[in-house]
Fold:
Amino acid sequence: MKLSQKIIICSLLAILAATGVAYLVVAMDEYNDYKELADMGIKGETAEKVFEVAFFVGSAAVYFGLCGWIYKSGKTRRFPHVVAIVVSVVLILAYIASRTVGVPVVGIEYYVGKTDIVIKILQIVVIGLSAFAIYNMKEKHAITKVN
Structure:
């Protein structure tokens, strides 16, 4: 049984929006940590927290933007799906790097939270749904050419 392209796109839009919301939740947590550190007078960690807040808000904005772009582009444009895959892969790789070799400004993070895991699962689903949507578009295009 073949899934409708409309169902795939609607599912993808929901996952993209959920990923954006999850990144906003993480940004809010980091901002609360920033306020606590600033209140205690710890200056060294505040620059890292400001960077993390900006990074997570920016990531949320990218996912919301992708959501709008894919919605607007309809069921036939592949490029927004390719971008969604690339963005998700890059963010997963950045996360892995931040937990293993470290990244500039932040260094190595040792904490892996539940929200981190949820976001990575959502990003893997984004990759899968986008790849499936592209495959489905190619298959429909091939069928149209034959008929």
Notes: Residues 78 and 135 are 9 Å apart (CA to CA).
